[in-house]
Amino acid sequence: MSRPGADEPAARAGGRWRRRMAGLDARYWRLWGAVASSNLGDGLVSLALPWLASLLTRDALAIAGVALASRLPWLVFSLQAGGLTDRFDRRRLMVAANSLRAVIATGLSAAILLDVASLPLLYLAAFGLGMCEVVFDNTSQALLPSLVPRANLERANGNLMGAQMVIADFVARPVAGALVGVALSLPFAIDAATAAVSAALIAAIPGRFRTPQPDAGDRPSMRTQIAEGLRWLWRHRLLRVLALALAAMNGIAAATMATFVLFAQELLHLDGLGFGLLLATGSLGGLLGSVLAPSLTARLGSGRSLVLTVAAPILGFAVIALTSSPVLAGVAFAVYSFTAVTWNVVTVSLRQTLIPDDLLGRVNSVYRFFGWGVMPLGTLFGGGLVRLVEETASRPAGLRAPFAFAAAVHVALLATASPRLTQTAIDRAKAAAPPG
Q1: Among the ranges 27-36, 331-340, 342-351, which has the highest mean pLDDT value?
Q2: pLDDT tens digits for range 197-218
Q3: Which of 17, 222, 335, 425 lies deepest, with the highest CB count within 10 Å?
Q4: Rounded mean pLDDT of 261-271?
Q5: CA atoms of 29 and 385, how far apart (whole Å)
Q6: What is the model's pLDDT at position 121?
Q7: What is the C-alpha separation between 197 and 401, in angstroms, rounded?
Q8: 396 near 272, Cβ under 8 Å?
Q9: Domain boundaries defined on the chain
Q10: What is the mean pLDDT of residues 276-281?
């Protein structure tokens, strides 16, 4: 016989779960499933591509080129993707993007099986997969506010980002690390299948998701629409600061990840499975961020939470720059991942609240043009920095240099951007937002 009150913790936990899920209907969960499925493939490919490149060459700059190719679409196509998001049905765009992704991944898997894979082919495939990612990710963020009440946006975004961290990092990356030891083609074949499943789930969401359009004769050109989104963002003081801060953080993060596979192999002495586990362990912080971000912002406020996400990576990057321990590197990576996901939960929800729906796709794409478009430049910088330092000092010093530089960048951001990310500025921007 149980004692009185023994079931109260379980009841409280069940109540918290029901409150967390309240207001999220079947349409949202189809989107959630599609994003989760797509991120399973993303996680497999994010490990398999650089690992395959490291088998073809040991040149840091050449390996960084794979990451450069996958991120270059954010620089060259994100603005156009935003225009497409506000011009066409958002659900159909997402279906088309992941259908094309399935085709590209199938082709790359076949090339590996036929032993015709090469660095130029990897660059081309990475670029094509990146183009699909730009359209899918930008459009999914614009679609979400049509499925979820504004009051539930932080919870909905937290659930999505939590799924991304669990599936892409805890599941996909260790699995990818094991798969590359069995057959290099397998991660790409599975990516093709998960992209197809994702497209099918999006296609199953009922309704039309196209913003009202002017008559064909009155419709402005794509360039005019993109310029409207750019002007709107640049005039919005808070979002402008957030976009520029994100550009600095993402650019330097891309520099650290450009040759991270070489850091893991040569300084941490990890094999493919170990590398996958390192990324998964580090991403535990990201999972915690996705779960705790709404509570953290409720306790600290959005302003202080954002300042914390700028400050904490200073320690994380500094530890990685100095350590040769996989355990310490994993813990430090977890600190960074926690802050990155917390930043995303807060700022994505802010954008979805502050930007009018008919501009959401374009302004989002401009924001991500700054925040993600700089990543290919950061990747190129990271590869070049490693080569420069290893030629003037040593190979280990070169592989550590991007992390030391990243810590310095976050110190500079803490001094410059943080004073502008106050709770007063956020509250003022919310008060001026269009009604939801």
Answers
A1: 27-36
A2: 999 999 999 888 876 666 555 6
A3: 335
A4: 91
A5: 43
A6: 94
A7: 40
A8: no
A9: 25-207+222-431
A10: 78
- Domain 25-207+222-431, what fold? Growth Hormone; Chain: A; (1.20.1250)
Residue type, 43: G
Q: CA-CA distance, 162 to 222, in Å (whole number)?
A: 34
The number of C-alpha atoms within 13 Å of 319 and in the hemisphere containing its C-beta is 18
| 48 or 288, greater pLDDT | 48
pLDDT, residue 5, reads 45
> Taking the CB of residue 282, how many other CB atoms lie within 10 A of it?
23
